[in-house]
Amino acid sequence: MKYALLIYDRPGTYEALSDDEREAVFGEYFAIAEAPGVVGGEQLQPVETATTVRVQDEQTLTTDGPFADTKEFFGGYYLLEADDLDAAIEMASRIPAARLGGSVEVRPVVER
Q1: Would you state the pLDDT for residue 37?
Q2: What is the mean pLDDT of residues 52-81?
Q3: Which of 9, 17, 59, 106 satisfies CB 3.0 to 4.6 Å to 21 for a cystine?
Q4: Concatenated DSSP letters for 40-69?
Q5: CA angle 86, 90, 91 (to 5 degrees)
């Protein structure tokens, strides 16, 4: 089964790390990208680059930036093929954001 591991970061987390700590954390992200079962994933540009789209009364409305101010922002994802939810949770627990004040949402992918 495929799982999306959705990574939510806490603003300012990486900026608070020393250069060596930041390099080590990014190394962990790269290692996870190469781990068995990981079949895809991407880091997103900073939340400030987002454009939010809404359709109201058949008009497309856009707003610069994220939908709302939040304590966490969606920073990227991995796509994982795993035998079960427990294996997906184990991989999610390795993602640095999970221990650095953020979270990782594990969600089964609808396979067609």
Answers
A1: 97
A2: 86
A3: 17
A4: EEEEPPPGGG-EEEEEETTEEEEEES-SS-
A5: 120
Average of pLDDT values for 10-35? 95
Which structural domain range is residue 25 located in? Answer: 2-108
Closest by CA to 77, choosing from 17, 20, 26, 29, is 29
- Two tokens at 75? 């920073």
Average pLDDT across the chain, whole number: 93
Strand partners, 42: 77
- Tokens matching residue 82: 């795993």
Helix (H, G, I), strand (E, B) or coil at 67: coil
Q: Which CATH number characterizes residue 65's domain?
A: 3.30.70.1060
Dihedrals φ, ψ of 55, to 5°? -120, 125
Answer for the pair 41, 79: CB distance below 8 angstroms, yes or no: yes
